[in-house]
Amino acid sequence: MVKGWNADLDMNTEDLKSPRLWIRLLYLDLKYWGLSSLSKIGSLIGIPIKTYQYTKTKSMIKYARMLIEVPIEGPFPDSVEFFNEKGQLIRQQVQFEWVPANVHTVICLDIPLMFAKIRQAPIRNGGQI
Length: 129
Prior knowledge:
By secondary structure, this protein is of the alpha+beta class. The chain has a domain at 18-99.
């Protein structure tokens, strides 16, 4: 998660508390590829934001792909369970395309301290890049 820098950049970390992450629902039965079903399955993980274009059109059916907003601290489950229309328990495999590697580093990052250290760093090679 990289945000472009500008002079008016707000160093607030609110945006980092609930990132939007792409998930893949591996081997999802095609009968659950409707927006309503996908939304219900996505809600078991977080807040569904949007469905990938190829998932909507069923152009690539290897997996269904969705953008989900989740708390940065997780959980990031590798499966979710739901009951189908016949009352059978379905365990759906979930794959996150990316998850935060070290949540505490992201949340606790001391930006002002980091900039202070950069300003104090010695200039090497006479300032040449």
